């Protein structure tokens, strides 16, 4: 990432940024910076509580790319808290909370992150006010002030692309370049 725009202890960010989650093995994930959300949220699947009553923990999977199951990461972290969170659609959901180190525009911060399925959401991660109050200001008219991910990473984030062929088959090309053909569903 390029040099972030720092001003004393305040870092100006765009409303969307590429971030790094070094403690969970995710070097690139596109995040929405949302001052309307109190806590941060991460797309998680196969969420399973593990550990003991004295040391509760959670195991979950993360798909870092939108519209793709590629490069899934399995993570185990201590459970920090449990919260009822009202989603953007107004539904109340009980969620586990973990602490995750987030590198945003080159600055590491520890964020309280709720785990939920964000498959249908536009971003796999949302960074809320509690993390942003650690020295960040969001410029809602700007994006990617910390720089864009390399082109190969941005291509993986797009997910598979499909092409309709003259013989009514569909050829899919994965972000890794692999092609395969499916017969039509009729």
Structure characterization notes:
By secondary structure, the chain is mainly β. It is built from two helices and 16 strands. It has helices at 129-132, 151-158; strands at 6-7, 10-14, 16-21, 26-33, 40-43, 45-51, 56-62, 73-78, 81-86, 92-104, 107-116, 125-127, 136-139, 161-164, 170-173, 179-182. It has a six-stranded mixed beta barrel. The longest helix is centred in the C-terminal third of the chain and has 8 residues, at 151-158. The termini are far apart. The relative contact order is 0.25.
Short account of what is shown:
6% of the residues lie in helices and 50% in strands. It is mostly beta strands and 186 residues long.
Write out key terms for the chains shown:
mainly beta; 2 helices; 186 residues; 16 strands; 3-stranded mixed sheet; 6-stranded mixed beta barrel
| General form | globular
Number of helices: 2
In helices, the fraction of residues equals under 10%
Radius of gyration: 18 Å
**What percent strand?**
over 45%
Main sheet: strand order: 3-4-12-5-11-10
Mean of pLDDT:
84
Provide the structure class: mainly beta
Low-confidence parts lasting 5 or more residues at pLDDT below 50? none
First-to-last CA distance: 47 Å
Give the strand tally.
Answer: 16
Helix-strand pattern, N to C?
EEEEEEEEEEEEHEHEEE
């Amino acid at each position: 990432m390029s040099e972030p725009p720092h001003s004393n202890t305040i870092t100006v960010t765009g409303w969307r940024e590429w971030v790094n989650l070094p403690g969970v093995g995710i070097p690139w994930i596109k995040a929405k910076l949302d001052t309307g959300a109190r806590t941060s949220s991460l797309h998680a699947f196969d969420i399973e509580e593990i550990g003991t009553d004295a040391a509760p923990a959670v195991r979950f999977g993360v798909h870092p790319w939108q519209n793709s199951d590629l490069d899934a990461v399995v993570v185990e972290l201590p459970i920090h808290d449990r919260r009822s969170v009202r989603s953007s659609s107004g539904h109340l959901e009980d969620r586990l909370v973990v602490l995750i180190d987030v590198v945003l525009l080159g600055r590491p911060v520890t964020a309280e992150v709720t785990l939920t399925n964000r498959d249908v959401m536009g971003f796999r991660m949302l960074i809320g006010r509690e993390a942003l109050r650690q020295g960040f200001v969001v410029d809602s008219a700007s994006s990617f002030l910390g720089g864009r991910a390399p082109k190969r990473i941005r291509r993986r984030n797009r997910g598979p692309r499909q092409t309709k062929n003259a013989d009514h088959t569909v050829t899919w090309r994965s972000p890794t370049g692999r092609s395969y053909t499916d017969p039509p569903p009729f």
